[in-house]
From TrEMBL:
Residues 1-49 form the Reverse transcriptase Ty1/copia-type domain. Transmembrane segments: none annotated. CDD domains: RNase_HI_RT_Ty1 (cd09272). It comes from Hibiscus syriacus. This is Reverse transcriptase Ty1/copia-type domain-containing protein. It comes from the Eukaryota. Signal peptide: none annotated.
Length: 260
């Protein structure tokens, strides 16, 4: 680790500490990745993925160099350590590591074009004294064209900054958007429970219920009301674990409008 005043480098991470907070980023690592792939002067992309783009295994384009694709995606995966804004798209393109096509390679290079315009992005943590754990959960529905499974996503903040996030394809196929959201909310609740235990171990016990925001009213109702049996009886038992957490006051699901 090299100390340059308040700026420290460690395993590709940059930590800058000032009087009112700490900023963590991977600017140098991202710049080196762009240089390695000859993308330093590329055209900037406003988003890491095309709007409503659906990648699939057989997209009609020819196969590309698998080794180069894996090297590129591997670099992007490490970049998600502090860049949660690319977690979803990196998770999607990593599904095609075994047999990438030219279109898949183009989608991966678009992520680099987005990174080229957002090198200064990172995580900022204010110097505050009150720390409350809270989270957000969301999902797509049948986003994977191969098996029609949905992708769950969550992000948790503690105090002033984000500390935990995930974007992962669900293990089962949801029969409705509400079921997909319910499954995502349960995964988020399990993560919240684990985080609360970690915080208790370091003497930062969360006395109040952890609030998790979602944009689906049906999911909130299903977590509170067992009378939805006719609509939810096919859902795996483990998914209903969120009901126990809501009933005992460990978790509170609150509605958050999608536009917010």
């Amino acid at each position: 680790m090299t100390d340059l005043g308040a700026l420290q480098f460690f395993l590709g991470l940059e930590v800058k500490q000032v009087e009112d907070g700490i900023f963590v980023s991977q600017k140098k690592y991202a710049a080196d990745l762009l240089k390695k792939l000859n993308m330093t002067g590329c055209k900037i992309a406003a988003t890491p993925m095309n709007l409503n783009e659906k990648l699939k295994k057989d997209d009609g384009t020819e196969e590309t160099d698998a080794w180069s694709f894996r090297s590129l995606v591997g670099g992007l995966i490490y970049l998600t350590n502090k860049r949660l804004d690319i977690s979803f798209v990196v998770g999607v393109i990593s599904r095609f590591m075994h047999c990438p096509s030219r279109h898949h390679f183009g989608a991966a290079k678009r992520v680099l074009r987005y990174i080229a315009g957002t090198l200064d992005f990172g995580l900022w943590y204010d110097n505050i004294s009150k720390f409350n754990l809270s989270g957000y959960t969301d999902r797509d529905w049948a986003g994977c064209l191969e098996d029609r499974r949905s992708t769950s996503g969550y992000v948790f903040g503690f105090g002033s900054g984000v500390v935990c996030w995930s974007s992962k394809k669900q293990a089962t196929t949801a029969l409705s958007s509400s079921e997909a959201e319910y499954t995502a909310a349960t995964s988020s609740a399990c993560q919240a429970l684990w985080l609360k235990r970690i915080l208790a171990d370091i003497n930062l016990k969360q006395k109040e219920a952890t609030v998790i925001y979602c944009d689906n009213q049906a999911t909130i109702s299903m977590s509170k009301n067992p009378s939805f049996h006719g609509r939810t009886k096919h859902i795996d038992i483990r998914v209903h674990f969120i009901r126990d957490l809501v009933s005992d006051g460990s978790i509170i699901l609150k509605y958050c409008n999608t536009n917010e």
